[in-house]
Design a protein that fits this description.
The complex is a heterodimer of chains A (about 375) and B (about 250).
Chain A (H helix, E strand, L loop, with lengths): L1 H16 L1 H21 L7 E7 L4 H12 L3 E7 L3 H9 L4 E5 L3 H8 L4 E5 L4 H22 L23 H32 L1 H7 L4 H29 L9 H25 L3 H19 L11 H7 L3 H15 L3 H30 L1
Parallel strand pairs in A: 1-2, 1-3
Antiparallel strand pairs in A: 3-4
Helix pairs in contact in A: 1-9, 2-7, 2-9, 7-9, 7-10, 7-11, 7-13, 9-10, 10-13, 10-14, 13-14
Chain B lengths: L4 E12 L2 E12 L3 E6 L5 H8 L7 E6 L2 E2 L4 H7 E4 L11 H11 L4 H15 L14 H12 L6 E5 L7 H16 L3 E6 L2 H4 L4 E6 L2 E6 L1 H8 L4 H13 L2
Parallel strand pairs in B: 3-8, 3-9, 6-7, 7-8
Antiparallel strand pairs in B: 1-2, 1-4, 4-5, 9-10
Helix pairs in contact in B: 3-4, 5-6, 8-9
The chains are: A alpha/beta (about 375), B alpha/beta (about 250).
């Protein structure tokens, strides 16, 4: 035990004396969570739009006022010719143009039908979609207020309610993802680098010649990272609670326990990588390409798995991060307990055992 | 007085697939001896050494190190040997003191013992002024001397040195060999591989490996007589050439 403490102490010296690893350990999580929280967002806010009003009557004015009164849109420009639509889009500032047809009010009264054309800049399809939806909603709202008191025989009134994230805050979606990435990065990449570093420097040989058993060496190397990953997970959760007002609906204890499980999964992966890679550089490349990319692309962190092509959906199943994201989303947003995530938990445990099994096997082969 | 054998190898062999890296080598090393283990690059020195220090399993043959079997008792072997590899295996980002404490710790020395040894070692090497400096900032020669001292920290019966003097100047090499003699005088057995044939002359006995086999084994003086040459360098060249020529 005393040997072990000495070993861990040495590991902390390595970490705290290396600026690069310190930055990855502590700068990165905070930078990522703030970036994802503030900068990268799907929410619509103060989008610049232009109006092309061919009729300029009371109704169109009311609608325009209603739109400009909402916090989602700012009317930046009034254009007068169809040809200008192209020009404003090309300039890039304007994301949508509302085109009111001629004699809008008259048509509405006479024929009970008038048309507005909503033209959006779909170079960014997600934003274009959201803009259309928001404008539609405003128009519908206007229509309803107009029709008040008028009896219509049939009417379907959809009542939508967004549960678990009623304000549709993007950060709620990103926090679980960022937490997953950070834990993966710190646990898998940092451990694989630190183990391969000992190989590169030749100190691993010295450790293997010493009375320490190989598994003691490995455990000594990973324990500090379990600790640091937990610190990171805590920082991320605290940031999201206090800065982004993200609720943690479920049990903090369960969240912690699941995080420890995922940290161990990642550490097992890191150890596996270090048995394959001979140099720090190789370990880093394998971690980045083999772990980070799939986590970002296929875990459901940014792109919903359900809308992926079937082959990718199948591949996504072998990515540990996917299961962890499901678990922590469940705990943080829905407040579910272990009875709802036991399946995912078992899958993670299974994967961890599998990775450890291969590492042990590979390690033995190397020693032969 | 006949001294006891601390290393005994008999027909020790290591194969990797079709390739025989070490081909049935047999030799003994006596207590307190400085045993030179010579050979060209790729002759199988390092592989042979790895089997003796218990990090590589032999394919066949037997060997005992410090009285323990290399197949089944590697744990005991590890407690009784010191090892210094050709890459100076100290941590550059730890200070001199921290390195000593760490290696003392993994060999299970008590805190009191470590403190004692540390003070002794630092004063012997004259490192008082820089004991709190990072090892990475020391010159190569000092690192090597420190590395050697660290490998002796737990007072092993045998110390294995894998090309310990690669890349250092002749004066430092000279100092290094003085340290080796001192350790041997105190009863530590030295098993050393080297490229430098002048260093081979400092050894009590040397073995020369060529393509996985031990082709010569005796005192430097007898080897020179046997091959009728003036220096170990010539012995080495003659042997290597004979093997290559036919």
């Amino acid at each position: 035990m005393k040997r072990f403490i000495g070993f861990i102490k040495k590991e902390f010296y390595h970490i705290f004396r290396d600026r690069r690893s310190l930055f990855i350990l502590f700068g990165m999580p905070i930078a990522q969570i703030l970036l994802f929280g503030f900068a990268i967002t799907n929410e619509i806010n103060n989008v610049d739009i232009a109006i092309l009003d061919h009729s300029k009557d009371a109704t169109t004015e009311e609608i325009i006022n209603k739109i400009s009164a909402s916090k989602y849109f700012t009317i930046k420009q009034i254009i007068v010719r169809e040809a200008d639509i192209e020009t404003v889009f090309k300039k890039g500032k304007i994301k949508a143009v509302l085109n009111f047809e001629k004699d809008f009010s008259k048509n509405l009264i006479k024929e009970q039908k008038a048309t507005i054309q909503i033209i959006t800049d779909a170079t960014d399809p997600n934003t274009a979609n959201s803009i259309t939806n928001y404008i539609n909603a405003i128009l519908q709202n206007y229509q309803q207020s107009k029709n008040k008191g008028i009896q219509i025989d049939y009417q379907i009134v959809p009542q939508t309610r967004m549960v678990y994230n009623p304000e549709l805050k993007g950060v709620f979606m990103f926090v679980p993802g960022v937490m997953t990435i950070i834990l993966m990065l710190v646990s898998a990449m940092m451990t694989s680098i630190s183990i391969t570093r000992e190989k590169e420097l030749g100190t691993m040989e010295i450790l293997l010649v010493s009375p320490l058993k190989p598994f003691q060496v490995i455990i000594g190397k990973v324990v500090p990272y379990i600790f640091l990953s937990l610190v990171n997970a805590t920082v991320i959760v605290l940031l999201s609670i206090f800065i982004f007002k993200m609720p943690v609906a479920g049990s903090l204890f369960l969240l912690g326990a699941e995080s420890v499980l995922f940290i161990i999964t990642s550490l097992a992966l890191g150890i596996l990588i270090s048995t394959i890679a001979q140099t720090q550089q190789a370990a880093m490349m394998i971690s980045l390409m083999g772990l980070m990319l799939p986590v970002i692309l296929l875990s459901g962190f940014i792109f919903p798995i359900a809308s992926m092509p079937i082959p990718l959906q199948i591949i996504s199943n072998i990515i540990p991060a996917k299961w962890f994201i499901i678990i922590i989303k469940g705990i943080m947003l829905k407040g579910v307990g272990i009875t709802y995530v036991w399946k995912e938990t078992l899958i993670l445990i299974g994967m961890t055992l599998f990775f450890i099994g291969i590492s042990v096997k590979k390690y033995k082969i190397r020693l032969e | 007085m006949k001294k006891e054998n601390v290393i005994e190898a008999d027909q020790l062999t290591k194969t990797f697939g079709d390739f025989t890296a070490v081909n049935a080598i047999s030799f003994e090393v006596k207590k307190g001896e400085i045993f030179g283990f010579l050979g060209a690059n790729g002759a199988g020195k390092t592989t042979a050494m790895k089997m003796l220090i218990g990090i590589s399993k032999p394919s066949s043959g037997t060997a005992k190190v410090a009285g323990f079997d290399v197949y089944s008792q590697t744990e005991f072997i590890k407690k009784n040997i010191g090892y210094m590899s050709q890459k100076f295996a100290l941590y550059d980002d730890l200070t001199v003191k921290e390195n000593i404490t760490f290696f003392g710790g993994i060999y299970g020395l008590s805190r009191k013992k470590i403190k004692e040894k540390r003070a002794q070692l630092i004063s012997e090497l004259g490192l008082e002024d820089i004991s709190n400096k990072l090892v990475g900032s020391l010159p190569l020669g000092w690192k090597q001397k420190l590395s050697f001292s660290v490998s002796l920290l737990h007072e092993p019966k045998i110390v294995f040195l894998d090309e310990p003097t690669g890349g250092v100047d002749p004066i430092t090499r000279r100092h290094f060999w003085e340290m080796i003699y001192k350790a041997a005088d105190q009863g530590t057995t030295i098993f050393v591989t080297t490229h430098y044939m002048d260093e081979a002359e400092y050894c009590d006995r040397v073995s020369i490996m060529v393509e996985g086999k031990i082709e010569a084994l005796d005192t430097p003086k007898k080897l020179k007589e046997q091959f009728k040459v003036e220096s170990m360098n010539d012995v080495f060249l003659k042997l290597a050439r004979n093997i290559e020529a036919p």
